[in-house]
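stage 2 :: seqdesign
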């Protein structure tokens, strides 16, 4: 592995397998270069001293602004939909579960 190849080819193949991707040898090499470049860039970012830089945005601030506008309902238990009624609206079901076409072939 060279300095530019921080990610091993075996790791690329493992990730591709987990993601159900079939990569050509050329695509594996390109992915190896791209992932290594990303890790190099993240490494550069980790070298920055951000101790005195205030955060620019926080999720809590967004949620508080939304709550002020009543965008969020109270988190309280309530009855769910009736199964029979929902299954009648399904294109295909066995009465308990939805049936969907198989989308992943392995």
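stage 2 :: out
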């Amino acid at each position: 592995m060279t300095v530019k190849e921080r990610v091993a080819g075996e790791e690329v193949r493992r990730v591709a397998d987990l993601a159900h991707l079939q990569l050509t040898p050329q695509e594996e090499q390109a992915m190896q270069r791209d992932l290594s470049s990303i890790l190099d860039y993240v490494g550069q970012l980790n070298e920055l001293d951000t101790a005195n830089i205030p955060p620019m945005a926080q999720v809590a601030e967004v949620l508080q602004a939304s709550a002020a506008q009543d965008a969020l309902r109270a988190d309280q238990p309530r009855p769910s939909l009736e199964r029979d009624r929902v299954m009648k609206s399904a294109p295909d079901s066995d009465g308990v579960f939805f049936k969907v076409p198989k989308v992943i072939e392995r």
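stage 3 :: structure notes
- The chain has a mean pLDDT of 86.
- The chain has four helices and no strands.
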